[in-house]
Amino acid sequence: MGNCLGKSDKLTAEIVPHDGTYPTVRLYGSPTNIVTAYIRFALLHKAVSPDFVPSSQTTRFGGSEPENPVVLQVGSETVSGSRETLLQYIDNRFPNPPLTTTAGSREVEEETTPLIVKMTRLQHKSMTWHLERMVRWADDLAARGGRKAVDPALGSPRMEVKKFAKSYSQLLEVMLEHAQMEERVIFPILDMADRGLCKAANEEHARDLPVMNGIKEAIKSIGVLDSGSPACQEAIFNLVARLKSLQEQCKQHFMEEEMNILPFMEAVDLSNEQHKRTLEHCFDVMQETHSRLFSFLLEGLVPHDAMQYLDLISRCREKEQLVSIVHAYLSC
Question: Are 77 and 52 in contact, with CB atoms under 8 Å apart?
Answer without folding.
Answer: no
